[in-house]
Amino acid sequence: MDLRYGSSLAVKEADIALRRGEIAAITGPSGSGKSSLLYCLAGVLPVSGGEVLFERTNLGDLSDEELSLLRRDRFGFVFQYGELLPELTVEENAALPLRLAGQRKAQALATAGEVLGRLGLRELRKRRPSQVSGGQSQRVAVARALVHRPAVVFADEPTGSLDSVGAQVVLAEFLALARSQGTAVVLVTHDTNVAAQADTRYTMIDGVLTLQGRSVS
Ligand SMILES: Nc1ncnc2c1ncn2[C@@H]1O[C@H](COP(=O)(O)OP(=O)(O)OP(=O)(O)O)[C@@H](O)[C@H]1O
Ligand SMILES: [Mg+2]
After folding, report:
1. What residues flank ion ligand 2 with Cβ within 5 A?
2. Where would I find the ABC transporter domain in this sequence (predicted)?
């Protein structure tokens, strides 16, 4: 597939197949097209050429409404700064995908509480995002991305705001939780130690995605 913004090609060539539960990491220089690729894979931006398939459905064939339901129910997202809703508590933030899918509040909060517990955040669940640390809010964002057991989580430098030790701890927890529930992950990271934990590693250079390595399993 490829993606152009006006006349400039941000993604020139990308051929990637993600198996169920697979963890793929993408590294590459700033401006090489990593975020753009992620937006295409996640159905946030339509591709300019080629196609993106999810379970045999071509995302380009879906209406906006179908696409947003697919993103809501089957995908999870973690971004660089977590992006929690400040007026909601930690547990309400983490429960959001379940609430959007129509689950009752008590049930959604109970499930969110379990996931938060697995990330060591149970005690903080009644606080607001402004009352927790940067690393803790990244964990809340991880909880929110995984709480509805999506098929795929798209993560764009999910620990970009943390120092390297803090980032590695959160990422290790994130990948372990995703693995334990069989959620596939497409992770953009600048950290090669983190990329080394993935099943498949790609590099993006000047809009071209190249497979770098695959761990034997
Ligand atoms: N909305 C946009 N309109 C026009 N050009 C864009 C847009 N978004 C990104 N670009 C350009 O597309 C190219 C790829 O950008 P992208 O954000 O995908 O890079 P990246 O690899 O994620 O970089 P970084 O590591 O800095 O996040 C860059 O040259 C960027 O300037
Ligand atoms: Mg980016």
Report:
1. 35
2. 3-216
| Domain annotation covers residue 118 | yes
In a domain, 40, yes or no: no
Report the candidate in 34, 24, 29, 21 with the shortest Cα–Cα distance to residue 197.
Answer: 24
For position 164, what pLDDT does the model report? 76
pLDDT, greater one: 135 or 102: 102
pLDDT at 3: 97
User: Rounded to the nearest whole angstrom, what is the distance from the C-alpha of residue 35 to the centroid of ligand 2?
Assistant: 4
Question: What burial class does residue 81 get, using C-beta atoms within 10 Å of its C-beta: 0-12 exposed, 13-18 middle, 19+ buried?
Answer: middle
**Total tally of structural domains belonging to the chain:** 1
For residue 183, tell me if it sits in a domain. yes
Say how many Å lie between the CA of residue 198 and the centre of ligand 1: 24
Q: Where residue 121 falls among pLDDT bands split at 50, 70, 90? A: very high
Q: Which range marks the domain in which residue 72 is found? A: 3-35+46-214
Quick check: helix, strand or coil at residue 76?
Answer: strand
Nearest CA owner, ligand 1 atom 8: 36
Cα-to-centroid distance, 74 and ligand 2 (Å): 22
Tell which atom from ligand 1 comes closest to the C-alpha of 8: 5
What are the pocket residues of ligand 1 if the criterion is a CB atom closer than 6 Å to any ligand atom? 5, 10, 28, 30-36
Q: What is the pLDDT of residues 90-104, one digit of tens each?
A: 999 999 999 999 999
CA of 92 to the centre of ligand 2 (A): 28
Give tens-digit pLDDT for 45-85: 999 999 999 999 999 999 999 999 999 999 999 987 768 99
**Nearest atom within ligand 1 for CA of residue 11:** 14
* DSSP per-residue string spanning 16-55: ----TT-EEEEE--TTSSHHHHHHHHTTSS--SBS--EET
Is 41 among the domain residues? no
